[in-house]
């Protein structure tokens, strides 16, 4: 797989390089030079989940990894299901929250962990570290989290050879459940509580990446949401959604672009939607997509004819989507351009807080408990999809992850999944650090 930098098209890299680098020159995003086409979609949709994932992933990176390695990475990454649950006739929820940290970010993070550990082990076998200027073959994932990403990344890399993870989080500003999920692991995972906010954590991470001592010593990798390996993993579950949809329609159903479901994606940084568009570009029938956002509505405003204008980010119940300048957007536009599709085919809608609460309640009338992110995607369907059409919304987090909000809106207790209950009983381990780069630097180099 070859990728080019959307800002500097002459920078062309392999998938492995793009996964290690994350971003290209001038912080440009990597984009595939070629989107592979899958034929015999009907046959593909009849395979089992892991075999289907293997086919999808191989179409992209089969030139860089042996088939047995791809199979192994897929088996180790996707250790949980993505069930398509019928909410009512014509409406389904694709539940992406059955992984270890109860949010869809587990798919991307776990696959990225497989890719990076594979690359790290190949470098060791190659003897690359003989280069005296490259002091180690160690790789350190340094990441800032406002809650969910840190947990997904930490869990995904837990006990993976040759890779350490350091998570920076704003002290006192994330929920206890979120914190427990990455501070109770130990081993190759460490956490640093920064006495400031999330923006400060992000700033510190950026400074660390610009620091030569830290880079040499630790082999930094950001593992953030623009990493191409995460997107590859996310393409897989769109195939899963359509496969289960077809099975549920029963015999006699003929899948085409017309009978295929509309998919509504609750969006923040737009990685999830980018992956969906890649799936459609590969040949998967999907009628069209809906980009559903909360009150951070830069994209819906733009799709509805206004200029691209980034307003200050506002805090909402669906806080993982509190993003006003989505970093994956250039990839979305690049796909439309490459495929010759019109952006008119992408529907955008912003759902406010009152609508989100009403949507959560409306879902319980169908016997379905969701959380605010899924509710935003569901409400978009209520507003934009006709009764005769089939639609799927992506349920990106488990209701227990947003227990407080869900309980206050629905006035019913949310059951804690076992994994979260156990983490709540373990002891947290973390270090404290001021919002001060020299202090963080000496802490990191001590590692
Ligand atoms: C990250 C996240 C989103 C937004 O996904 P993007 O790929 O950033 O658009 C939606 N829901 C949940 C629960 C998330 O954690």
Automatic annotation (TrEMBL):
All residue ranges annotated as the Tryptophan synthase beta chain-like PALP domain in the record: 95-384
SUPFAM superfamilies for the chain: Tryptophan synthase beta subunit-like PLP-dependent enzymes (SSF53686)
Cofactor(s) listed: pyridoxal 5'-phosphate
Family statement drawn from the similarity comment of this UniProt entry: Belongs to the threonine synthase family.
Enzyme Commission number(s) of this protein: 4.2.3.1
PANTHER family: THREONINE SYNTHASE FAMILY MEMBER, THREONINE SYNTHASE-LIKE 2
Domain of life: Bacteria
Protein known as: Threonine synthase
Keywords of this entry: Amino-acid biosynthesis, Lyase, Pyridoxal phosphate, Threonine biosynthesis
Classification via InterPro entries: Ser/Thr_deHydtase_PyrdxlP-BS (IPR000634), Thr_synth_N (IPR029144), Thr_synth_N_sf (IPR037158), Thr_synthase-like (IPR004450), Threonine_Synthase (IPR051166), TrpB-like_PALP (IPR001926), TrpB-like_PALP_sf (IPR036052)
Pathway annotation from the record: Amino-acid biosynthesis; L-threonine biosynthesis; L-threonine from L-aspartate: step 5/5
GO BP annotations, alphabetical order: threonine biosynthetic process
Positions of the Threonine synthase N-terminal domain: 11-78
Catalysed reactions, semicolon-separated: O-phospho-L-homoserine + H2O = L-threonine + phosphate
Pfam families: PALP (PF00291), Thr_synth_N (PF14821)
One GO MF term: pyridoxal phosphate binding
Modified residues (N6-(pyridoxal phosphate)lysine): 105
């Amino acid at each position: 797989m070859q990728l080019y930098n959307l800002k500097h098209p002459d920078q062309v890299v392999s998938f492995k390089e793009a996964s290690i680098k994350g971003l290209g020159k001038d912080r440009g995003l990597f984009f595939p030079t070629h989107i592979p086409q899958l034929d015999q979609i009907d046959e593909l949709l009849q395979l089992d989940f892991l075999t289907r994932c293997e086919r999808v992933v191989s179409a992209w990176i089969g030139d860089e990894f042996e088939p047995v390695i791809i199979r192994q990475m897929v088996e180790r990454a996707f250790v949980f299901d993505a069930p398509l649950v019928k909410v009512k006739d014509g409406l389904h929820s694709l539940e992406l929250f059955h992984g270890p940290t109860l949010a869809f970010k587990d798919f991307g993070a776990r696959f990225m962990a497989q890719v990076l550990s594979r690359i790290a082990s190949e470098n060791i076998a190659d003897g690359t570290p003989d280069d005296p200027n490259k002091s180690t073959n160690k790789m350190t994932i340094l990441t800032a989290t406002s809650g969910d990403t840190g947990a997904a990344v930490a869990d995904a890399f837990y006990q993976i050879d040759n890779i350490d993870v350091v998570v920076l989080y704003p002290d006192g500003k994330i929920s206890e459940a979120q914190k427990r999920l990455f501070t109770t692991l130990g081993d190759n995972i460490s956490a640093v509580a920064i006495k400031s906010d999330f923006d400060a954590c992000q700033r510190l991470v950026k400074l660390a990446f610009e620091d030569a001592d830290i880079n040499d010593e630790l082999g930094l990798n950001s593992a953030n949401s623009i990493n191409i390996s995460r997107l590859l993993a996310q393409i897989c579950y769109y195939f899963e959604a359509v496969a289960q949809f077809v099975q549920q329609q029963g015999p006699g159903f003929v899948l085409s672009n017309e009978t295929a479901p509309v998919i509504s994606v609750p969006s923040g940084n737009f990685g999830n939607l980018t992956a969906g568009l890649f799936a459609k570009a590969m040949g998967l029938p999907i009628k069209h997509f809906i980009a559903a956002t909360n009150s951070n509505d830069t994209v819906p405003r733009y799709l509805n004819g206004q200029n691209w204008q980034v307003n200050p980010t506002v805090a909402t119940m669906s806080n993982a989507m509190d993003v006003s300048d989505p970093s994956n957007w250039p990839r979305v536009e690049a796909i439309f351009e490459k495929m010759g599709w019109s952006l008119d085919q992408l529907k955008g809608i912003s759902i406010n807080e009152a609508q989100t609460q009403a949507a959560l309640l409306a879902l319980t009338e169908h016997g379905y408990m969701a959380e605010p992110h899924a509710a935003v995607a569901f409400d978009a369907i209520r507003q934009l999809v006709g009764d005769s059409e089939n639609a799927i919304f992506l349920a990106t987090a488990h209701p227990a992850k947003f227990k407080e909000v869900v309980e206050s809106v629905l006035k019913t207790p949310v059951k804690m999944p076992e994994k979260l209950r156990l983490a709540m009983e373990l002891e947290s381990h973390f270090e404290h650090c001021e919002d001060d780069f020299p202090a963080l630097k000496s802490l990191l180099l001590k590692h």
